[in-house]
C-alpha cells in the first residue's frame, strides 16, 4: 500500500470510530471493537481487488459461510457483503452485513457474544438513512414491530443503493406474483470495456439492471431494453451548427444521446432505422470532428444523418454497433418471414382498425377554434422543419414550450406516440395488436364482462360513443389489453382514458398508448388493489407537507387528501376537468412523465390554499375544488372534444396558465425524485396491504375458537415463509402470449 492509501484508511478510522468509543464501558471492549474495525478495512481493500466475471473462489467461500451462519437454502444467492456495525441498544456490534436476493443478514462475534440478524426483504416497511444522536450516520431497516440500525459503512452509498434495489424487487414481487428474479447470463459473454469488476456475478447483474432502468426512464424505452454501455462524445446539431457535449448510450435496439447541460438536446435513434454507420476521416484543420462517426437512417423524408465526434474509443463503438445491427437485421428478417408476434394470430374476425374517431365523427366547426388549431399546426410544422420529426427528432427546450401551449388535434397521435415511448413498443411488435384482438374476442372472462358493462358509460356525450363504430373500437382496445396483461385486466378508470385516446388516435396507437400508460408511466395503478395509485397518494402527501405544511395539516384534519389524489390521478384529471382542458395535461404527461400530475395537483391546491384553509368540513372543501377544476378552461381545444356546458362554465383559469404555473412553482420535482418516492412508499403500502389481509384472515378463523389469535398469527407466519420460499425463484412472465 502507498502512504496516501494508509493515511486515507487512518483518516476514515478516526472520523468514523473515535466518536463511537464513548459508548463502551470497558477498555478491552474498545480494543476488541477497534481491532475488528481495522480488520474490516483490510478485508474490504482485499475485496476491491480484481474479481473474475463469475464468482471468485473467496466469494464462494463467503457464500458457504453465509448459508451456514443463517441456515438458508443453497439456492439463496448472496449478492455482496459489507463490514459495518449493528446497534444493539446503545452498543455497536462490529460485524458483517450479508445482502442476498431475499434477505438482509448481519453477523457479529465479539468477546464470546454472537449477534445474528436475518430480515426478509419482503418484510421491510421502512428503509432509509438516519443521522441522530443515538444512531449517527446510520441505515435504518424497519419491519413490523422492530427497527434495526446499521452504521460505520466503508461504502455507505453503494450499500444503501443495493439495499434499496433488493427491497424494491421484493415489494414488486408481492404486488405481482409473476415477477421473479432470473440472473442475466448474457452478461458473461458480453463484450465490454472499462467496466469495474464486481465482487459477484449477481452484483454485476443488479448494477446492470439499475443502469438499464435509469436509461429506460431517461429515454422512455421499452421495459425489456438493456443498456449495453455509454461513452462521452459530441453531437453535431444542424439547427445551430454546433457540437454539443454529452453522452452516447447504446442498447440492443437503440442509440441515444443526452447533452451534458440538462435539457439542451437529446436524441433517440432506433437501430431498426439505421442504414449505415461509417467512420469519418480525421481532419487536422477541424479538431471538433476528431474520431467522428456518421449514422445514416433509412428515413428519406426528414433528417437522415447524425454526426457524433470526439469518441475516445471509436473503433470499439463501431464494432459494437456492427454486432447489434447484424442482430437487429436478423430479427427484422425473421419477422418479415412469418416469425415474431405474427405467429400469435389464431382466428381471423371481420373487423378493421379504426382511424382517430374525431375524423369519423367530427364536431361542429367553431371558426375561432379552427383558426387557432391551424396556427398551432404551422408552429409545429416549422419546428419539425428545423429539428426533424418522429422518434429521432432533436429534442430541445423549444419543443417543451410548444407542448405547454397544447398540441394541435391533428398532431396529437404522432407526438404522444413519439414522446411516451409507445411508438417504440408498436414498432417492435408488428401484428401483435391484431392477434390479441382475435384471441380476446373468443374469450369469456370477468374482465371482458366488466368492460361490456362500462362501454356505454365511456364519454357518452361524444358522437363517437353513441355509435357501434366507436363502441366496438373501445371494446377491442380494452379486451386486447386485458388479455395482454391479465395481472391488470381491466379497471374502471381505463375506459375513460381509452375513449379519449381513441378520439385523437388510431385504434392500434390508442392500444399502445394505454399499455405504455398502465405499465410504464403509472405502474400498478390499474390492478385490483390500485397499489400504484395508493403509492402516489403517499407521494402527494409528502410533497404537500414539504411545500405547504399548513394546508397539508388542514387536509389531513379534514381526511380528504386520499380522495383527491385517487379521483385526479386515475384518469389523469379527465374525470374532474373539462375534457378539452384535461387533454392539455395529458400532452405534458406523455411528454414529461408522471411528475406532471404531481406538479399540476400541487398547483391547484396552492391556488386554492386560502379558501381551503377556511373550509369548515370535508364537503365544503371538496365542492370548492370540484368547482375550481370544472372552471379550468381551454378555448383553443374545443375542436375534437368539448365540454357540453361550456357556455355556463364559471371560468377560473386557462389550462395553459395552470400548467405553466405548475412547472414554474414545482419545477424541482423531477422524474428521478418521483421514482425515489415511489420506492419508499411502495414498501410501506405493500406491507400495509399484507397486514390488512393477515388481520382479516385471522379474524375470520379465530371466531371458530379452535386456536387463539397469537397461535393463528404464528401459523400464518410459517405458511407465509414457506410460500415465499417456494415462489422466490419463479421466472418473470408478464405477457401470456409470449
From TrEMBL:
Pfam families: GRAM, RabGAP-TBC. The keyword Repeat applies. Keywords: GTPase activation, Repeat. The keyword Repeat applies. Residues 406-593 form the Rab-GAP TBC domain. GO terms for molecular function: GTPase activator activity. One of its GO terms (biological process) is system process. This is GTPase activator protein.
Amino acid at each position: 500500500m502507498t502512504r496516501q492509501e494508509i493515511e486515507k484508511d487512518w483518516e476514515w478510522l478516526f472520523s468514523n470510530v473515535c466518536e463511537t468509543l464513548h459508548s463502551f464501558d470497558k477498555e478491552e471492549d474498545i480494543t476488541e471493537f477497534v481491532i475488528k474495525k481495522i480488520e474490516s478495512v483490510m478485508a474490504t481493500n482485499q475485496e476491491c481487488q480484481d474479481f473474475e466475471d463469475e464468482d471468485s473462489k473467496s466469494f464462494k467461500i463467503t457464500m458457504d459461510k453465509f448459508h451456514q451462519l443463517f441456515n438458508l437454502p443453497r439456492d439463496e444467492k448472496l449478492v455482496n457483503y459489507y463490514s459495518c456495525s449493528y446497534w444493539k441498544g446503545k452498543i455497536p456490534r462490529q460485524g458483517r452485513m450479508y445482502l442476498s436476493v431475499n434477505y438482509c443478514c448481519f453477523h457479529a462475534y465479539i468477546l464470546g457474544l454472537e449477534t445474528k440478524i436475518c430480515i426478509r426483504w419482503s418484510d421491510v416497511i421502512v428503509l432509509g438513512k438516519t443521522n441522530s444522536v443515538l444512531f449517527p450516520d446510520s441505515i435504518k431497516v424497519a419491519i413490523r414491530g422492530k427497527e434495526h440500525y446499521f452504521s460505520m459503512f466503508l461504502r455507505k452509498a453503494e450499500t444503501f443503493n443495493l439495499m434499496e434495489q433488493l427491497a424494491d424487487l421484493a415489494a414488486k414481487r408481492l404486488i405481482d406474483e409473476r415477477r421473479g428474479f432470473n440472473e442475466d447470463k448474457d452478461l458473461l459473454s458480453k463484450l465490454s470495456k472499462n467496466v469495474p469488476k464486481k465482487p459477484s456475478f449477481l452484483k454485476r447483474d443488479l448494477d446492470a439492471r439499475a443502469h438499464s432502468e435509469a436509461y429506460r426512464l431517461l429515454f422512455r424505452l421499452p421495459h425489456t431494453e438493456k443498456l449495453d454501455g455509454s461513452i462521452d462524445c459530441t453531437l453535431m446539431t444542424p439547427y445551430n451548427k454546433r457540437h454539443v457535449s454529452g453522452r452516447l448510450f447504446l442498447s440492443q435496439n437503440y442509440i441515444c444521446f443526452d447533452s451534458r447541460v440538462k435539457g439542451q438536446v437529446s436524441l433517440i435513434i432506433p437501430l431498426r432505422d439505421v442504414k449505415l454507420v461509417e467512420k469519418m476521416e480525421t481532419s487536422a484543420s477541424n479538431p471538433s470532428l476528431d474520431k467522428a462517426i456518421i449514422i445514416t437512417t433509412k428515413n428519406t423524408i426528414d433528417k437522415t444523418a447524425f454526426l457524433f465526434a470526439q469518441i475516445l474509443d471509436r473503433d470499439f463503438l463501431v464494432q459494437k454497433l456492427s454486432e447489434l445491427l447484424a442482430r437487429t437485421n436478423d430479427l427484422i428478417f425473421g419477422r418479415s418471414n412469418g416469425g415474431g408476434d405474427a405467429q400469435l394470430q389464431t382466428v381471423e374476425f371481420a373487423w378493421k382498425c379504426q382511424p382517430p374517431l374525431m375524423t369519423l365523427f367530427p364536431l361542429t366547426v367553431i371558426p375561432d377554434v379552427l383558426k387557432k388549431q391551424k396556427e398551432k399546426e404551422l408552429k409545429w410544422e416549422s419546428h419539425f422543419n428545423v429539428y426533424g420529426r418522429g422518434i429521432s427528432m432533436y429534442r430541445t427546450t423549444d419543443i417543451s414550450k410548444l407542448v405547454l401551449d397544447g398540441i394541435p388535434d391533428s398532431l396529437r397521435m404522432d407526438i404522444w406516440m413519439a414522446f411516451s415511448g409507445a411508438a417504440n413498443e408498436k414498432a417492435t411488435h408488428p401484428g401483435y395488436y391484431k392477434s390479441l384482438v382475435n384471441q380476446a374476442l373468443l374469450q369469456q372472462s370477468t374482465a371482458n364482462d366488466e368492460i361490456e358493462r362500462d362501454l356505454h358509460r365511456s364519454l357518452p356525450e361524444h358522437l363517437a360513443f353513441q355509435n357501434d363504430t366507436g363502441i366496438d373500437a373501445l371494446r377491442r382496445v380494452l379486451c386486447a389489453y386485458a388479455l395482454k396483461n391479465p395481472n391488470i385486466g381491466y379497471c374502471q378508470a381505463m375506459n375513460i382514458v381509452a375513449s379519449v385516446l381513441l378520439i385523437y388516435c388510431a385504434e392500434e396507437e390508442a392500444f399502445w398508448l394505454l399499455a405504455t400508460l398502465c405499465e410504464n408511466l403509472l405502474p400498478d395503478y390499474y390492478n385490483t388493489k390500485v397499489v400504484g395509485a395508493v403509492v402516489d397518494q403517499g407521494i402527494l402527501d409528502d410533497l404537500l407537507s414539504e411545500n405547504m405544511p399548513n394546508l397539508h395539516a388542514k387536509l389531513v384534519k379534514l381526511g380528504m387528501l386520499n380522495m383527491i389524489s385517487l379521483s385526479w390521478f386515475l384518469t389523469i384529471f379527465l374525470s374532474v376537468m373539462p375534457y378539452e382542458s384535461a387533454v392539455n395535461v395529458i400532452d405534458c404527461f406523455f411528454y414529461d412523465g408522471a411528475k406532471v400530475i404531481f406538479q399540476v395537483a400541487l398547483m391547484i391546491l396552492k391556488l386554492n390554499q386560502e379558501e381551503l384553509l377556511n373550509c369548515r368540513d370535508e364537503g365544503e372543501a371538496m365542492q370548492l375544488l370540484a368547482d375550481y377544476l370544472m372552471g379550468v378552461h381551454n378555448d383553443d381545444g374545443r375542436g375534437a372534444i368539448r365540454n357540453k356546458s361550456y357556455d355556463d362554465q364559471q371560468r377560473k383559469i386557462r389550462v395553459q396558465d395552470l400548467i405553466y404555473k405548475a412547472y414554474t412553482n414545482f419545477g424541482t420535482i423531477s422524474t428521478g425524485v418521483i421514482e425515489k418516492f415511489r420506492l419508499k412508499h411502495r414498501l410501506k403500502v405493500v406491507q400495509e396491504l399484507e397486514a390488512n389481509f393477515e388481520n382479516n384472515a385471522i379474524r375470520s378463523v379465530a371466531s371458530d375458537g379452535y386456536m387463539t389469535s397469537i397461535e393463528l398469527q404464528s401459523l400464518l407466519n410459517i405458511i407465509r415463509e414457506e410460500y415465499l420460499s417456494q415462489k422466490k425463484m419463479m421466472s418473470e412472465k408478464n405477457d401470456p402470449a409470449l
